[in-house]
Fold this protein.
Amino acid sequence: MSFTDAEIAQYEEQGYLQGPRVLSDEQIVALQLHIDAILDGQVDFPKHLMGETVEQSRAKGQLPSVKVVNLFRHDPIFAGLLDNAAIGALAHQLMQGPVRLWEDQMIYKPSFDEQTVLAWHQDYTYWDHVGPAEMGTCWIALDDATVDNGCMHVVPGSHRWDLDYTREDVDGSDPDWLLERPGIPADADLTPVACEVAAGHCHFHHCKTFHGSFGNKTASARRSYIMHLMPGDTRRLGDNWNERQGDVEIVPIGAVLKGATYPVLKPAPSQGVVSHMTTEK
């Protein structure tokens, strides 16, 4: 399983790319059931990694959704996805190898909840204690992700824009805050593109691509599993700031971030660790 040269060029130029099917029907059902068990408290999982319920988020004036993070480090079912040959092969086409798993998460959008909005953001805003900013995400649908149930939207080419802000500057009360930042080119097209993904299929986006999602207007929940990935030359630049993330202080500042807590995805046998990613910022 591999991307064509044209698809790789799209990722480099536009900052996102639709991917193929990477999970079987059996795997989808198993993950759906396991997620439901985690959310229902039937599986022993660290509470501080389970985020907040929709009701708790609303009470604090925050954007509601259910998000569980750091799954692979605490749950053998999700750790097993590291052996997914298709995901590993695709990731190594888009990033310099060896590609490692930075962190993962599950996002659950309840049915008939149009307030489950995920504000426009760039992932690297929250990852800038490591670099360079060439990390990426493999977003996997566990239910069909559609416009009606809140699929991801992206702004093509936004990963190339040079914006000057930090996570402390973000206005969490305004979903459109990022779209109004200084540094966006005057002639930039901010028209969002919907990224509908069929269950079991994947979607990749660059860590600086503007993306977000809207609410779920349907009668069914929308679940997704997200693998945040880092190229083989990703190094520690700063210190830990969020206990829900992995520990970057296992290596000295300036050292490549690697070790058992940052496992390598397996490339296809013919790939080795050759990079096809040449995006300039």
User: Anything to note?
Assistant: The chain has a mean pLDDT of 90. The chain has one domain: 5-250. The longest strand covers residues 100-109. The chain is about 15% helix and 20% strand.
